[in-house]
Every structure is written in C-alpha cells, then in structure tokens.
From TrEMBL:
<feature type="domain" description="Glycosyl transferase family 1">
    <location>
        <begin position="504"/>
        <end position="667"/>
    </location>
</feature>
<feature type="domain" description="Glycosyltransferase 2-like">
    <location>
        <begin position="3"/>
        <end position="169"/>
    </location>
</feature>
<keyword id="KW-0808">Transferase</keyword>
<dbReference type="Pfam" id="PF00535">
    <property type="entry name" value="Glycos_transf_2"/>
</dbReference>
<dbReference type="Pfam" id="PF00534">
    <property type="entry name" value="Glycos_transf_1"/>
</dbReference>
<keyword id="KW-0328">Glycosyltransferase</keyword>
<dbReference type="InterPro" id="IPR028098">
    <property type="entry name" value="Glyco_trans_4-like_N"/>
</dbReference>
<dbReference type="Pfam" id="PF13439">
    <property type="entry name" value="Glyco_transf_4"/>
</dbReference>
<dbReference type="InterPro" id="IPR001296">
    <property type="entry name" value="Glyco_trans_1"/>
</dbReference>
<dbReference type="InterPro" id="IPR001173">
    <property type="entry name" value="Glyco_trans_2-like"/>
</dbReference>
<dbReference type="InterPro" id="IPR029044">
    <property type="entry name" value="Nucleotide-diphossugar_trans"/>
</dbReference>
<dbReference type="GO" id="GO:0016757">
    <property type="term" value="F:glycosyltransferase activity"/>
</dbReference>
<protein>
    <submittedName>
        <fullName>Glycosyltransferase</fullName>
        <ecNumber>2.4.-.-</ecNumber>
    </submittedName>
</protein>
<feature type="domain" description="Glycosyltransferase subfamily 4-like N-terminal">
    <location>
        <begin position="320"/>
        <end position="493"/>
    </location>
</feature>
C-alpha cells in the first residue's frame, strides 16, 4: 500500500488506526508513506505507528503529490515480487474499512485480465453539508466520492480515483510512473494526478474493474463545503481536463475545441439570466461550469506545449497488421508521456477505423501527401504538389518527430522526404520483407535527401530489417539507431479458455469433439487461402471429422468458395469473415495455420500461441523469425504441400503433443512477445531521438 502525505498530522492517526484493523490478504501487506516535505508533526505520527504497522517512510523534499508517489514506488519496486502483485494507493485522509485490502485482492484474483481496480469511496463529513451542496455540486468530481449504487464490474479507468486504487505491479515494472507536472503541489495546480495515470493506462489498452466491497471513507473538511473552495476545485478540474484531453477529436479555434467556446457563451448568458431572475441554484451551476471552462482555457493558452509530439504515418491501402501496430505504437508512446497522433491515408474502411481509434482516445488525422515515390506516373507533378501542399500539411501537425512505417520498398518514402524538407527528425519501422531492387536515377537524389532525416530504424523481424538495409543501407546517415522490435500480443486478452472453446464451436456449428484447423488471415494471394483448402482436402480421408475455419475477408473469397465446392468440402469449411473478437475464436482451434508466400511478421501466429494453440507456418522470412526454435509451432516448406500435410497430420494424430506445444507456446509468447515486453522496447527505442 502506498500513500503520499503533506502536513497530514490531523487525519493520519485515523487512517493509520484503520490500517491497524485491516484483515490481511494472503501473502500479507506493507505500507509505504511518502512524506512530501511536511512541516507539521506528520513525521512524529508516522514514527509513532512504525512499531505497530508494517510501515516504511520515504521522504520526498520536492513538493508534489506525484513526486512523493513516485518516490514511494521506487522503494516498493526494490523488493522482489510477482507481476500480478497489487500496488494499492490511498490518501492520508481516507480511512479504510477492515476488509478493504482483502476485497481488492479477491477482485484481482477473480479478474486476471484486468490491471486496474477501484473501490467505493464514501464521504466522512467533518461538518453537516449544507442542503444545496448535495443538490447542486458534482460530488465525484469535487470530492472524489463514488456515485451511490455503483455496480461491480468493468468501469472506465478514469473513474478509478486515487483514494481507493489498485494497480498490478507489472505496470510499474514496465516503467509507468505518475506525471509530476500535474496534481497537488505547492501553489495552484491542475487536478487529475491519479486519473491522468489511469487514463494513460486505458490508452495503452489496460482495463479497470470496480469492487464496491473495497471501501474507504474520505474525510471532507469543513472549509471544503464553501462556495469559493468548490469553485476553485472546478477551476482546477478544468485545468486537469486539458492535460488529459485527446487532441484532434474536435475542430479547434484559438487553441481550444470550438464547442467549448460556444459552451462558454451559453453558460455566461445563462448566468446573467439566472441572476436577473433570482435563480440561485441555476446561477451556481453556471458558475461551476464557467470555472471549469476557465481552467481549461488557462491551460490551453498559458501552459507550455506538450513535449514530444510524434506523428505516425504510412502509405496504407487497407487495414492490416502494420496499421494495427501503428495504432498500438501510438498507445505505447502516449503511456510514456508523449503526444502521438496517427496520420492515416484514406483507404476503404479507414473512416470507421478512425472512429474506433478516437473512441479509444488515440488522436487521428488524415495525411495523404501526393505520392512522389509510390507512384511513377505524374512523379514530377506530384513532387511539386508535395513541396507546396504536403510540406504545409505536415507542418500544421507540429510534430517533433515523424515515424514512417514501411510496408513495401518505397511505400512511405514521400512522408520521409517531407519530414526532411520540414527539418524534422524521423524514424522508420519496417513491417515486411521485400527484395532488393534498383532505384531509379530520378529518385536517387530524392532518397538521399529523404534519408537525411532518419535517426532510427527498427524492423518487426530481423529478416525485415536486413531486407530493408540491403536496399537502403547506403542512404542511411552514420550512427543511425538500429533495432528489432517484434509485434506483440495482449496475453491477458488472448489466453487459453476451455469455456470459449466450447462456446465458439457451438456458435460456428462445429461438433465439440471435432478436429479444427483455423486460419486468421486475409483472403488474399499473399496468404494463400487456396492452399489451406487443398490441405484440408488431402487430410480429410484420414481425419473425417476435420474442419477448417477461415477468419478473414478479401478479394479471393469467391474463388475460395468455388474451390471448396469443387473439392466437395462444403460444410467442412467455415467462412467466419472479418472478426474483431479473434481472441474468442482462436481457442476453438486445434492447430492454427499461416501458409503465406510472403510475411512481415504474422501476428495471428503469436495470438494463436498465446491462446495455447500450436501454430504451423510456411518457412519463409517473417514466419521463421517467430517460429524457428519455438516449442509452440512448426515451420513447413512453402513449395512442398505434401510435406506440409504430413507435418499437420502428425500434429492432428497426437493430442498430447498438441497440448505440450500449446503450453510451451504460450510461455514462449509471454517471454518474447507480451504487450509489456514490447512496450518497454518501443519506449526505450524512442528515448533520446525526440
């Protein structure tokens, strides 16, 4: 348990007495109190309880609640522990109920896929609150009080508040810390110290669970029940809102969303009307909203521009693994305190994807410069347009660094060239293996100019990086940072599940005891879905209860359906279509297949392994980087379908072997491709480049 305190001598005794009454969870607990330069008798109070509680004190002289919490974290992380261990946070004026820690621990054990846990916060009034307060004041935003009747279950992480918050240790082992520029400190401050952290975690894909039985009582002092204090709180809340805002969601004017300016005019007009009509309650509500807006405007107009704005872009033609990785990278960078924006080129389905990303608080904008490198025809015209329009469009984004994702040879080079012309540093990520080729004499000087902006290059696999270097090594500046950072999988979301296995098979109309081959891949020539149908046709005489599930859509769907009919496999091939819930589908498979002729990485392979499903893939660059030496999968020849069929048949005939491979494959994924592991690699790669 971690707690920051500043001059908390008046409330700490009650809180520490409550801690003495706590029912210990399995494995016990300890308390770290971070004294944030208190000038009252706080140190003596802590010392008094040192012999009566498992208590340690750390002194943080620099003012700021988040400074103190980070100091407490450093001490907590020195002690060895498991990633699933809980770090529980509370305040020096929040008295816990006896079963508080026990209930949080039970919730964490029962919900292994969740990383953030919050409990109930009830008021402990120092004085009877005036009648108008509970009628007109938003108690949650003002005092951190949980709404009555809050049901147990998933909750938005931003609604987990610092007086009653638990996070898994693994989040901090990966480098997560509190933002020390926000939250209580000396003088005026922007609210949102803990919620800023939980919202960053939400941006990184972490989920929160509410447990009402884990309860603390938050002491609310008498002076906090006055109008001036409450309006000052609204002002600070508005400042914190700006710090946590997602830029690019709404059109802006004068540095703030246009709707906010309209809202200010309406609230000001409403306040004037309420005063003229003598409507005290309405006047107070308008004053609260105006104070909140004033705080937001203060931060927007006076606060320094957020540092390290990274624009992530590419030359995309469809939604695939590279695009998903770009969005994931934006979340990783946001969790590390950067200000990323995903700049996507419009393609079929991009508008719907952008809406999904914005709903997850990933900033998205459109960026489609004229293709100087990606299109040979009209290259001179495109070069002039890119210089005139593309460079201006890039500058308007105000990036500190441009990340260009390459899916194929020169796809993305225009954005790289524009970054150089705008004097912006750039990094490149390589997501496919592509053969070396000749660079035209017309493009050669432009490429040399473009690569002058590059500070770092990483490949999703070693093969992808080496293919890229074979083509562009001579263009790269000396000392450029090189790395291999693989794709990753959320191992809390993708996991073995006997219950999902049965439910998904039932939903797909598959017998519970059937043998099922599955493939999560686009129905496109690169993925060779026709080879999967031929494989099923070869294997079915030996395994009559064998089925194939194709999860994906694409240009070959009609041709594949015709091939299924020609081979007499109707009813044994399930076309599941494009699926957002792949994690529910994969546990239903006995073997996952990826028989691609070309592959950048093969995210579906590690997703299957995370679900305890053996993976089989063609022995090509990209697949081999994942499966060579892995106990969770097999590589089969690309051009020998008989050998591939024999390898798959040996797996289907040996359920014990499949079970061993499934367990070993998940362990391999946890070690090499977990979300936390790759996030740490991405964040380390960027440090020093912006």
């Amino acid at each position: 348990m971690l707690m920051a305190t500043f001059n908390g001598a008046a409330t700490l005794p009650n809180v520490l007495e409550g801690c003495r009454a706590l029912v210990p969870p399995a494995g016990g607990w300890r308390l770290i109190v971070a004294d944030n330069g208190s000038t009252d008798t706080t140190a003596q109070v802590i010392e008094c309880y040192a012999g009566r509680l498992p208590l340690a004190r750390v002194f943080a002289a620099r003012r700021g609640k988040n400074v103190a919490l980070n100091a407490a974290l450093e001490l907590a992380l020195v002690a060895p522990g498991l990633p699933g261990d809980l770090f529980v946070f509370t305040d020096d004026d929040a008295t816990p109920a006896p079963e508080w820690l026990l209930r949080l621990a039970e919730a964490a054990n029962a919900q292994p896929e969740y990383a953030i846990f919050g409990g109930a916060i009830v008021p402990d009034w120092a004085a009877t609150p005036p009648a108008w307060l509970e009628r007109m004041v938003p108690l949650g935003l003002t005092f951190g009080i949980t709404p009555p009747g809050q049901a147990d279950g998933p909750v938005f992480p931003g609604l987990v508040w610092g007086a009653n918050m638990a996070l898994r240790r693994a989040l901090f082992d990966g480098g997560m810390r509190f933002d020390e520029t926000i939250g209580p400190s000396a003088g005026a401050y922007a609210m949102g110290s803990e919620t800023q952290l939980t919202r960053r975690l939400a941006d990184a894909g972490e989920r929160a669970w509410f447990c009402g039985a884990a309860r603390v009582a938050h002491h609310i002092r008498a002076h906090q029940l006055t109008v001036p204090w409450i309006l000052e709180r609204a002002y600070r809340f508005g400042r914190g809102q700006f710090r946590q805002a997602c830029p690019g969601v709404f059109p802006e004017l004068l540095g703030v969303p246009r709707w906010m300016l309209g809202r200010w005019l309406r609230e000001a007009g409403g306040l004037l009307r309420a005063r003229l009509l003598g409507q005290a309650d309405a006047a107070f509500r308008h004053r609260w909203e105006l104070a909140c807006l004033r705080g937001y405007f203060h931060e927007a107009w006076r606060a320094p521009r957020p540092p390290r704005r990274v624009l992530i872009t590419s030359y995309s033609g469809e939604l695939g693994g590279m695009e998903l990785r770009m969005a994931q990278e934006a979340q990783f960078l946001k969790a590390d305190g950067c200000n990323p924006v995903l700049a996507i080129r419009p393609f079929p389905g991009s508008a719907a994807w952008a809406r999904q990303l914005r709903a997850r608080r990933v900033p998205v904008t459109h960026f489609a410069p004229p293709p100087v490198f990606e299109q040979w025809h009209w290259r001179r015209w495109n070069r002039w347009r890119a210089q005139w329009w593309g460079a201006r469009a890039l500058r308007r984004q105000r990036p500190d660094l441009v990340h260009v994702a390459f899916c194929w040879s020169a796809y993305g080079a225009t954005a790289l060239w524009l970054a150089r012309r705008c004097a912006l540093p750039a990094v490149i990520s390589v997501h496919n293996t592509f053969p070396p080729g000749d660079v035209s004499a017309w493009h050669r000087p432009l490429l040399r100019e473009a690569f002058g902006a590059v500070r770092g290059v990483y490949g999703a696999t070693e093969a992808a990086l080496q293919h890229f270097l074979a083509l562009y090594r001579d263009y790269l500046p000396a000392g450029v940072r090189l790395a291999v950072i693989p794709n990753c999988v959320d191992t809390a979301r993708f996991r073995p599940s006997p219950a999902l296995r049965l439910a998904t098979r039932q939903a797909l109309g598959l017998p519970a005891d059937a043998l099922v081959l599955g493939a999560v891949a686009r129905l496109s020539p690169q993925k060779r879905p026709d080879a999967l149908v031929r494989l099923l046709h070869v294997l079915r005489p030996r395994f009559p209860d064998l089925y194939l599930v194709l999860a994906g859509s694409g240009p070959l769907e009609l041709a594949v359906r015709q091939l299924v009919d020609e081979r007499g496999l109707t009813g044994h091939v399930i076309f599941a279509g494009f699926r957002d819930d792949v994690e529910t589908l994969l546990p239903a498979f006995d073997v996952h297949l990826l028989l691609s002729q070309r592959e950048g990485f093969g995210i579906a392979t590690i997703e299957a392994m995370a679900c305890g499903v053996p993976a089989v893939a063609t022995d090509i660059a990209g697949n081999a980087d994942v499966l060579r030496g892995s106990p969770g999968g097999l590589l089969v020849p690309l051009d020998d379908e008989a050998a591939a069929a024999q390898a798959v048949a040996s797996l289907l005939a040996d359920p014990a072997r499949r079970a061993r491979m499934g367990e070993a494959g998940r362990e391999d994924v946890l070690r090499r491709f977990s979300l936390q592991h790759v996030q740490a690699q991405v964040q380390a790669f960027y440090r020093g480049l912006v």
